[in-house]
Structure formats: structure tokens, C-alpha cells
Amino acid sequence: MIEMTDEMKELVDRNHADGWDCTVGTVDKDGQPQLSLKGSVMVYDSETLAYWERAKRTALDNVAANPKVTVLYNNMTDRIRWRFYGNAEVHETGAIRDDVMSRTVEAELERDPERTGVAVLIKVNKIAELSGLVLQER
User: Can you point out the beta strands (E) in 3-117?
Assistant: First the structure.
């Protein structure tokens, strides 16, 4: 069972404001990895992360081809580092897209003035420290 802690919720939700944009790792259909900084990563619910995908380039194509992703939260000041492993799904329209957009940090929305982005939800299957220590797993 995955149940993100209050600390995880607080720190992940303010990652952009703290200067620690999360890194989202995706893989294309040929196995080529891609890393993308996402300042909009948030805790959507106790077992789900979300982000606003405004660029709609390689990372979005990769999620469509292979939904397995990893999100790295790396707080250099407090030396708190988590890896969240899960499966992503894209919401191009509808209530979930609108909800994620409404919760996205303003700095990210300013870079998408036409609001053409999409919501990406990641159902988390495992949370581990950078050392590899598994904190939670389904």
C-alpha cells in the first residue's frame, strides 16, 4: 500500500518554490531514457503524483509509448531525496485535467498562457530513498 507521508506531501508540493524542481524520468518505445525537469509536480492524493505537461514534447510521447516513470525529488539543502516509481496516464480533457491545472503553481501556468497543457497522473507503486532503501511498495 502507498500512503505518502505529510512530509512528502508538503515538500513535493512546494518543490518549485523551494528551487528543487522534480525530475521526471520516462523511456521511449526503443528504451531510450529521457529526464525532464517539472516544476509542477504535486501530490494529487495519498498514492498519486501529478504534473502539468505544458511542453508536450518527448516526455509526453514517451508516456504514451511506455507509462512507467520515475520521479526524483532532490532537496539539496535538507538532503532529502525520494524516488517515486509508478505508471502515468494522460488527461487531455475533463475534470482531472481541470483539477490539476487549478492546483498547478502559477509560475508554470504563466509559461502556458493559452492553457494548452495536459494533466499527467502517476499512480505510485514504490517510494525509495536515493540509497535504494524502499520506504513503501504496493
Answer: 22-27, 33-38, 42-45, 48-53, 68-75, 80-91
Query: Which CATH number do you get for residue 57?
Result: 2.30.110.10
Q: Is residue 68 part of a domain?
A: yes
Distance from C-alpha of 82 to C-alpha of 15, rounded to nearest angstrom: 12
pTM: 0.95
Q: Considering only CA atoms, which of 56, 50, 58 is closest in space to residue 22?
A: 50
What is the total count of domains within the chain?
1
Q: Which domain holds residue 62?
A: 6-127
List pLDDT tens digits, range 7-55: 999 999 999 999 989 999 999 989 999 999 999 999 999 999 999 999 8
Q: Is residue 117 part of a domain?
A: yes
Cell 504535486: give the residue.
Answer: 42
